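Box 4.2: Ligand-aware structure prediction
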Amino acid sequence: MLLDELLKEKLITKEEHSKYLAELQSSNKSEEKIILENELVTEDKLSEIKGKLLNVPVFENAGFAQISNDVLALIPEESAKYYKIAPLRLVEDTFEVGMVNPEDIKAKEVILFLARQSNFKTKIYLISENDFQEVLRKYRDIAEVVGEALSELREDEKSEMIVLDDDESTDVSAILEDQAPVIKMVSAILRHGIEEKASDVHIEPVENEVRVRVRVDGILYDTLKIPLGIHGAIVARIKILSRLRIDEARMPQDGRFSTKIGGKQIDFRVSTFPTKLGEKIAIRILDPSEGLKTYKEIGLSENNLEILRKQIRKPYGMILSTGPTGSGKTTTLYAILQEINKPGVNIITLEDPIEYFVPGINQSQIRPEIGYTFTKGLRTVVRQDPDIIMVGEIRDEESANLATHAALTGHIVLSTVHTNNAIGTLARLIDLKIRPFLIPTSLNISIGQRLARRLCPFCVEKVKPLPKIEKLITSELSTIKKNVRDKLKLPSKIYTYKSKGCPKCNNKGEKGRIGIFEILRMTKDLEKIIIENPTEAAFLTEAINQGMITMRQDAIIKALEGRVSIEEVLRVTEEQA
Ligand SMILES: [Zn+2]
């Protein structure tokens, strides 16, 4: 038992041990998953403990970058995937292999069999699940797959026919004939996007070639260049997948398709856009299994979690999440939904698009093109006898009105509003013609949110901040009420952090993103202000009074904990300074 071992090494307390043991028995999660999810120890530490327990050495990470194609070829990709084994390197006549589960006897037999075929001895190492995934990715280096497909195309005598002329309608059957390499190429591009956990893939004609870029953690990266000559064939393939008109290149089109990649059902939303150089394609990737995150994963602090948990116990009222596009609003609502999703509760959602699937919830896709809008959905959904309604966005007077009334008639309503911060929600509702005296009874909490780039935990370093930064930090935190501040356990000496880059973060120094939050809750005092003196200044005074930690303060606390850089704090909370 790993949890026992953690207790023995005093990495967790007795209470934690029994708590997670109970979780292990009641959920179908593995022990490792529970340990990593709750961040009891780092992945490296976990490997170390597991290795000791199983008496298997742990493979040092630095070696992953150097796995050669020859070594990869010693274990076929399918076997590697199935048995969770990874070829690592050859040291003279010894074949070193990584195993995620070194106690798996079948997997060991496979390794022995493969090694014997090439007359190698074997040495087994323990590797983590993440490292295993990294090796798997090496099997399908995107450039290689696309390169192969390209050379297949060149060998193909008919390849000339694949070039689509932008301005003339083209004979579709001619384009589709013998398209295997193009199909392969498109699927390699999509697969790469999913593996990189990209939110979007862009395929765009530039001067003399086609550029493929992916957006990961909010930033666009170049991944690939493809000859301009096959741009038309790629566009055609994607259009066919998403049932768009192939012969229409002068108008933007929107479509979608769904396919199974790597055992997962993934949805793609496709949008084409005519540019001077030809059609640009943007594909939004919706991986329903990626999106469901716990409060801890989205970065909600203990303090905010306590407030949130208390508030969402109320039997009715609006829970509004606010922030600009791409600030993680929906992910937060899903985290809340998962918590209040219990047997005996009827939850209905109206979404566009349905970003993640949640078992046990009635999720409905809005289709404005046939007149099924948020507003129309909200009007009918109440007749479905829901306890909880989630509606993608409150964007106009009518949807604001309907959401407010659903809340007033005893429903919990989750939604997003487009404003700058938690306080801004109040002004926005008034703007949308909600009468102020209805707000206190219908609004429960307003959550303001941003996403910040998280420092890579593997190469993070402590830095002594400049006096000016230290001063800024102290003064920003000084407005937090004393009783709240005492609970935060802030470090007595101020340090900030930076990451210089390592193989684990592709030398970016950053790994994923973390939410920055503020939670404003309805109180008697706030009620009074909304009705008597609804000004921003009065809202702000009350927010500080009720102990709200602003987004900027929350971000600074995360900087002091080494989770984000101070530069990132300033960047994401700039407009509030
Ligand atoms: Zn790193």
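In the box above, the bound molecule is zinc ion. Residues 456, 458-459, 499, 501-502, 504-505, 509 surround zinc ion (CB under 6 Å).
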